Amino acid sequence: xxxxxxxxxxxxxxxxxxxxxxxxxxxxxxxxxxxxxxxxxxxxxxxxxxxxxxxxxxxxxxxxxxxxxxxxxxxxxxxxxxxxxxxxxxxxxxxxxxxxxxxxxxxxxxxxxxxxxxxxxxxxxxxxxxxxxxxxxxxxxxxxxxxxxxxxxxxxxxxxxxxxxxxxxxxxxxxxxxxxxxxxxxxxxxxxxxxxxxxxxxxxxxxxxxxxxxxxxxxxxxxxxxxxxxxxxxxxxxxxxxxxxxxxxxxxxxxxxxxxxxxxxxxxxxxxxxxxxxxxxxxxxxxxxxxxxxxxxxxxxxxxxxxxxxxxxxxxxxxxxxxxxxxxxxxxxxxxxxxxxxxxxxxxxxxxxxxxxxxxxxxxxxxxxxxxxxxxxxxxxxxxxxxxxxxxxxxxxxxxxxxxxxxxxxxxxxxxxxxxxxxxxxxxxxxxxxxxxxxxxxxxxxxxxxxx
Length: 452
Prior knowledge:
InterPro entries: IS701-like_DDE_dom, RNaseH-like_sf. With about 450 residues, this protein is of the alpha+beta class. It has helices spanning about 1-25, 25-30, 45-55, 70-80, 85-100, 185-195, 200-210, 230-235, 265-270, 325-330, 335-345, 360-380, 390-395, 405-420, 425-440, 445-450, and strands at about 110-120, 130-135, 140-155, 160-165, 220, 240-245, 255, 260, 285-290, 295-305, 310-315.
């Protein structure tokens, strides 16, 4: 009866994956990402198998092999520098958002979320473009990359939309092998060139690519590392309003009450005035940001720092029509990308890949995002309180590990059934084979099989 339940669960998982890939049209999407290997296998087949591997929480080396191909074939495909993995992630997100749009209230503010996380490769030595990456959690440099990620959110569901695996633009910080190709006429060359540029400029490229592939958004949410008048202006040129945490730097100034002041000076001016701090925020004001000689309206919101009462945080946005409470609420949605990073590392092995190729690591990140899209879609469909982690373990339970002793018991039972029926083989021949088989097994397994 136990084996019947296991088979039933596995069929449920296969049906679940088939339903998802059919919903987003993965077969047609894979035809648009420059997959040109001379093989009878399709990228669609390989991605379905990779989804099974990700949901089982295993690496390619320990995964159950397919009857149609080996794990080496999959690694070769992931290492193919001609495949446009970024476009694959964009198209999958766009197809999934298309099915979610009827469920989203028209008053919802759709937003991109930008952030990066450490892609650790501590034991790697010669991986291409391996660099010194700063770990903000531990406060030190380590070997690896920065996984720059662009996400999409409707305040309910978060979906990864685009990404770039960033190295370092400083040659002395590159620890691994240099780029294999620098020819920007090829996709592999453009990908490596992108990895060695400033992240602030790469973010704009990722957003442009997402918009070009039909991903809808009105806002872009980001942390202080991307906040600058230039970044806000570039987003405005794309028809998007930026909203982010600002640095309290004396190098950046805004026009307020006819004077050019820093954020700190504006705060001190408001504090010395007759304005009383609100319950949700302290102060809010309209200023003029500038890029060169170009000026544009900008709203500042000063919020009390919960961790340090003597300090404060500053939010800024080009959407001046939003009320301060709405700005704070919208910026709070940025935390969804942090939850994605934690889940992807804890459950989907984001930073535990054994692939050594730079192109292969880019493909690995795309597969992780595809698996996360699948779980996010399932969480949106079911009406229960299960988290994404609960869903991962629920799907993982549908792929049970069969003990070696159990498999051997099944084999012996099948052979015994042939003995009773005496079909195709003589009884004495089968008994001889069984005896020979048992004598060559370890003593521990022999005792378990005899007792079973």
